[in-house]
Design goal:
Number of domains: 1
Helix content: 40-55%
Structural class: mainly alpha
Mean pLDDT: 90
Largest sheet: 2 strands, antiparallel
Radius of gyration: 16 Å
Strand order of the largest sheet: 1-2
Number of strands: 2
Shape: extended
Order of helices and strands: EHHEH
Number of helices: 3
């Protein structure tokens, strides 16, 4: 078997780490006992941008792990092609 070519692929939704941190703080709200800890961890992760399979607002539509996993599998297959 020969590999004819190789290339990188990234999901289409790219967000700055600060946008993700804000979205998580909003989503979890009062459930976060120490929201400043999330901000501190995210600010020190050494990551400026992250790529997501879907726009951040779409993640709220997943009601179960099964739905999330099925969506991720479909996205992973598309990227793999």
């Amino acid at each position: 078997m020969k590999i004819a070519a190789a290339a990188g692929a990234f999901p289409p939704s790219r967000y700055h780490q600060n946008v993700i941190t804000d979205a998580l703080r909003t989503h979890w709200g009062a459930k976060l006992p120490r929201p400043e800890a999330l901000t501190r961890i995210h600010s020190r992760a050494g990551v400026e941008y992250r790529n997501f399979a879907f726009p951040l607002t779409d993640y709220e539509r997943f009601e179960s792990w099964g739905q999330s996993n099925a969506a991720w599998m479909a996205s992973a297959e598309e990227l793999g092609v």
